[in-house]
Amino acid sequence: MTPDFRISPPSFGGKAGAPWAAGVLGFLPPITTADAPDAVRIATPEQVAITLPLAGVGTRLLAALLDALVMLAVILAALIAIALLDSVIALQPHGVAAGSVLGAFTLLFLFGFVFAYYAGLELLWDGQTVGKRALKLRVLRDDGTPVDAAAVLARTVVRLVDFLPAGYLVGLVSMIADGRSRRLGDIVGGTIVVREGDSAPTLREIAAGAEPAAWGPPASGQEAPVHLLTADELAAAREFLRRAASFPPPERAALAWRVATTLAARIGHAEPLAHPEWFLIWIVRSAAAQGN
Fold first, then answer.
1. Beta-carbon neighbour count of residue 180 at 10 Å?
2. What is the pLDDT of residues 183-225, one digit of tens each?
3. Contact (CB, 8 A) for 4 and 222
4. Cα dist. 68→21, 63, 236, 273 in Å?
5. CA neighbor of 226 nearest in space, from 156, 138, 173, 288
6. Which residue from 13, 192, 209, 265 has the highest number of Cβ atoms inside 10 Å of its Cβ?
7. Which of left, alpha, beta for 54 (phi over 0: left; psi -120 to 50: alpha)?
8. Cα distances (Å, whole numbers) of residue 113 to 68, 86, 108
9. What is the pTM of this model?
10. From CA 284, how far away is CA 292, in angstroms rounded?
11. Strand 31-36's sheet: what is its strand order?
């Protein structure tokens, strides 16, 4: 017995018989074109066009200011602690030598902290820092995929050039001149910064209203036959659900339908799909329950 997912398919662009396997199984890179001053349009291998709103210069500068305030607060607190430690060291024998070591450590800390703040948070938070998260911005690769370590490190290192001669002047000129509001670090790292919308529900919000078999481990006898799927097919379902909230609703529905119908055919699920994303949740939860 399997959950009931009956509904008619959503309407979306592209040929009805378009080859889906190239997108789900091959993970071919999408094609990116900037067709508006404030947005980038990505044509995925699944023949679905996704429009991502680009973050403007003003919004990015405000996010940078918030990050600077956070870093300033941390640095001031660290400097106060270091000053107190230095005053204690100065009273000890050989305090001058120890004080010199402490001074060198302080300089290393300042440079290391700024680098680690941007690189660490963007890796940990999938392209966000405190400032970007507050303003709902996110760094993506210029093909719309999540940033990787190489892209984050490249844009963080080149940030030193963007800051020259002061106050991000080089970066500001670059963002104004570039059609996608990219600073030099974005150009070198192959990244863009986009605005995240509020309209797309999260995976938990979707699943909260889903049928019982679509949330948590499926009930006994209701697991999907995920052994019929390859590792790449399961990865495609997981990746869609992870990134679903970042897609605009129409494109999200189209992609969900294409992924779900492809996997449904692979496992022999003949019933019409009531909600493609519920179906994908069922697939992923079944795989987790079976140790895949």
1. 20
2. 999 999 999 998 876 544 444 444 444 444 444 555 566 778 8
3. no
4. 45, 9, 37, 48
5. 288
6. 192
7. beta
8. 12, 20, 8
9. 0.57
10. 9
11. 31-36, 39-43, 49-53
